[in-house]
Amino acid sequence: MSTHDPHSDVVVHDDGGATPARFENPGLHEHASRQADVDPKVAKRVERQVLALFTASIIGTIVVVWAYFALPPGETPGSMRTSNIVLGLGLAVCLLGIGIGGNYYIKVLMSNREYVEERHEQRSSDATREVAVQMLKDGAEDSGFTRRKALVGAGVTALAVFPLSILVPLLGNVGGDWNVGKLKHTMWKKGTKLATDPTGRPIKAADVTIGDVWHVIPDGLNELEHGKLDEKAKAVVLLIRLDPRDLKSDQSPQGETWSHDGIVAYSKICTHVGCPVALYEQQTHHLLCPCHQSTFDVADGCKVVFGPAKRPLPQLPITVDDEGYLIAQSDFTQPVGPSFWERATK
């Protein structure tokens, strides 16, 4: 508890201590000038540096637009790598040039003097408004906008062309293949053998032990000449063997068994935004998506137990053939990948 005598400048506390009831306004501290404020050569050097950063940003945008058309991803890992590197570097230079250049200009060249404006009624007098307008004009002059035309022009140009680095790739997809129905079908069909990714070696059930995790593709995928990457993107599967006693669910809604002796196969494509799900925790039987931490329970139909995903990973119905090789009973019965507008999410 404390007591304050309105006629006193001191607040007295129960423990006998006292603190001032009010403090005097200390005012503004002494302004410290920067090198650019007192040395024209330093200011000129900073101007050139900021101009170079804005120019680099403009060049970065041009590189992104050029690379989008001149270096398409193609069908090979090498062409994809080259396209992604050039696009990424161009976008990085574009953004860093604007960010660092703008920051540098504000911190070093723009006025950093402190100004005090007393509080007043919301509606200022006409005379006060005239003073405010004049202060804005003085501030613009003090900032150097009116004097450093080349710098301002480069900055404005960098900001103006930057959206092209995002809009061109987006608009470039206009007229592209938006047939989301293709996600409803993959290469898997009745009798297709499960093969190792990337070697394409068929897998026998006897080769898979409890706790194993196999990255799987349809047998014959590597023989495709065209559309191999598109088909693989849809058909990749994660094969896991559990103790059959740990399986809570391994059946279709119609009661058909979709696993073989504890071996289950699920789409590797997260149902949130399509990242590869491949982090398996054997003790809990949980699968984790590394992008946004969606977590699926392998022992219970890969239902979502955590994260933003809205539906389980589609299960690939599997069995074995006469030679003991793992084969698909059919294609996925649910579309793979993220939920889209043509179907429910649950």
Q: What does this entry look like structurally?
A:
By secondary structure, the chain is α+β, with helices and mostly antiparallel strands. The chain has two domains: 35-115 and 128-172; 180-328, 3-layer Sandwich (Rieske Iron-sulfur Protein), CATH 2.102.10. Helices cover 34% and strands 14% of the residues. The protein contains seven helices and 13 strands. The protein has helices at 35-38, 40-70, 77-109, 126-143, 149-161, 164-172, 228-235, and strands at 2-4, 10-13, 18-20, 194-196, 213-218, 237-241, 263-267, 279-281, 286-288, 295-297, 303-306, 318-320, 326-328. The longest helix has 33 residues, at 77-109. The protein is elongated. The two termini are 59 Å apart.
Summarize the structure.
This protein is α+β, with helices and mostly antiparallel strands. It has two domains: 35-115 and 128-172; 180-328, Rieske Iron-sulfur Protein (3-layer Sandwich), CATH 2.102.10.10.
Question: CATH superfamily membership of the largest domain, which one?
Answer: Rieske [2Fe-2S] iron-sulphur domain
Largest sheet: 4 strands, antiparallel
What is the succession of H and E elements?
EEEHHHHHHEEHEEEEEEEE
Low-confidence stretches: none
Taken as a percent bin, the fraction of beta residues is: 5-15%
Q: Which strand order do you get reading across the main beta sheet?
A: 4-5-6-7
CATH architecture of the largest domain: 3-layer Sandwich
- The CATH first-level class of the largest domain comes to Mainly Beta
Radius of gyration: 33 Å
How many structural domains can be distinguished in the coordinates?
2
Q: Under CATH, the topology of the largest domain is which? A: Rieske Iron-sulfur Protein
Broad shape: elongated
User: Helicity range of the residues?
Assistant: 25-40%
Number of helices: 7
Mean pLDDT: 83
Strand tally is 13
Q: Kindly name the structural category.
A: alpha+beta
Biased composition (Basic and acidic residues): 1-16, 27-39
Family: Belongs to the Rieske iron-sulfur protein family.
InterPro entries: QcrA_N (IPR045603), Rieske_2Fe-2S (IPR017941), Rieske_2Fe-2S_sf (IPR036922), Rieske_Fe-S_prot (IPR014349)
Subcellular location: Cell membrane
